[in-house]
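#structure-requests
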Amino acid sequence: MFSVYADNKLFYSPRLLDERYAITEPQATLELNKAGSFTFNLPFTNPMYSSLKKLKTIITIREDDEVLWKGRVLNDAKDFYNTKAVTCEGELAFLNDIQYEPHDYSKKGIKMGEYFKKLIEHYASECSEERMIKLGNVRGAFTDVLIYPKTTDYTNVWNLISGNLIGASTGKVGKDEVDLSDYDRYLYIRREKGVSYIDFVDDIGKASSQIIEFGKNLLDLSEYVDASNVYTQIIPLGKADSKGNRVDIKLVNGGKNYLQSDSAIALFGKIQKSVIWEDVTNRNTLKANGQRMLNKAVEMAIKITIRAFDLHRINVNTDKIDFGDKVHVVSLPHEISSDFLCSKIVFTLDNLENTEYTFGLDFETMSGSFASYKRTYQYKMESALEIGNQNTQGLLDAMTRMDSLQTQVDSSICSWFYPGVPTAENYPAVEWTTPEAKHAHIGDLYYDKSTGIGYRWTENSGGYYWDVIEDKQVQQALQNALRAQSTADGKVRCFSAQPYPPYEVGDLWVQGGSGDILCCQHDRESGSYVASDWVRASKYTDDTKAIEAGKTATDYIKDGAGGVQVGPNGSSNVTMTDEGLVFNGIRNLVPLWENADPTSGIAAGTVICSDGRLASYAAIAIGCQEYYTSPFDSASTDGGLIQYTIVMLNGKEARCSYIWDYSRARKVTANKKGITFGPGGYYQTKKLPGLPLYPGSNNEYGAKFNSHNQCCVPVVIYGFL
């Protein structure tokens, strides 16, 4: 049974739902070499509703006494019912918090194992106690491979690990260059006696004795194949002589300068690739390097996602399936009977039957165990153009939903796909060195492959930063786009005007409602636009031209009385979407702003909502409460009520008021660029002796304003059309 804790305080337990310790849609993801995530909805009735703090609160999921997942709150967003949609990032994301100094191993190199130890030991020496991760096991053939990292700036530990260790493609053993795709290497968080250790190993080790079997505990199965980098012939080339002629393998390969896989050619046809090893002069070494690389290339990157029920949960004597285990999967209808590495588990905490296990299949060549699979599954090569077609739907969904194509500066939006949390100090933003360059990238989207969280490049009062995207549908659209190989490690650019070089294969050109969506089929680094570089992305536009036509027709629909027009020539406050009409006024009564701690009052001169969120509104409703009590006040009478004042966004000074023993008030000035609060206080009649209204009287006359920050305190703001 699962339970969830925030800073060691319980806030979810199936046994305590009646006591309001409830959350909905809880889903935890564990994945090799990635931070993982945990998402859930937190009702306002939960006792811990106000206790979760972004980046600070440590969340743990426990199954009985074992910690299944650990991380921290990354973001939350409220809906109409004040339920918070909470997103958490896993423990590996803590490595983003600590910077490592610039270093240069570009000449002599450093062993991968030694480099990893330096990074983790540095992190452990600098991190806070609640985010402690200590160095664990470091083992495997890769640990002795030399790599040559170099940085000129401080870089966070996670980016160095994911880029220089997990993401490294080549290294050296002795003088020989090696392909690091031949070396398995896994990051794994292991916990002992409450302490987290990070292991960097080539084999996590444990083999589960439980079998996932069709008709027994296998509930569903789907497979994913990535063949976009397959080639069936390789031309290995070595060091060049003074005339530019490179060493080849003809003298040791029967006069042929290439190696090939006959079984791969039978499946895919002849697909050639030339590879250069700059330092290799020995032909036999060159041939061995080429053969090893060819073998690796024709191994299909297969992942099988299985929805299965862990039998351990109904019989404790059955071996449990753990993250990183090797598990035997049997499904006669799919002709599967093999051991798989469990590389990912997605737990649905309140419905374990929906738990999904993702397994990576290990095999050596196209022969052997792979032979049985080629009868079951149909594989085909996909060109970069076809992959661009696959990207189109996801990327355009994300950019349209975020209005990126409408807010762009240079007629193009880049979508970046890399591991690690983006900042203004790491790639790609670190390369935008001028204010003009930073401004030109407003609206760019970034997808963190480690956590599955999306970001948008944003400007506020001259400052630029990556803002977390809270829209779950945008997150899903970016995840869909990631599945195609062309976005696996890099970027895809989307143009809204005629493209200009540089542009690359897979880039997109959205021509608008009256045009096509085109995909680039030819790289062009410089020069001018060439029409033949771009072709129609048919897989997307064949479906969407009809949709766009439908949208155009509805742009001019009026209501029965003819009083409301929807679309570009009508009110811009109403937008037609695939899901219906979106009114850009009060959206489900979601506040534009809330005061996190109103009890301390608010100081004169405080400015809020200066980030452009008021642009589509004409007026606001400011709700105030009272927190200053005089000797004549009763704190239990009416002080908790919210009193609303309507203020026009016209830049003219207005006044919020609150009925109390003395009239409480606060001045406010609001326009579409922000809201400025004046001093708060209370009005009191003022005695003016010597000015009696009639003989013999001692009257009070006039008024006095007494400033106090806890008077008429704004607590919430809503927007109106």
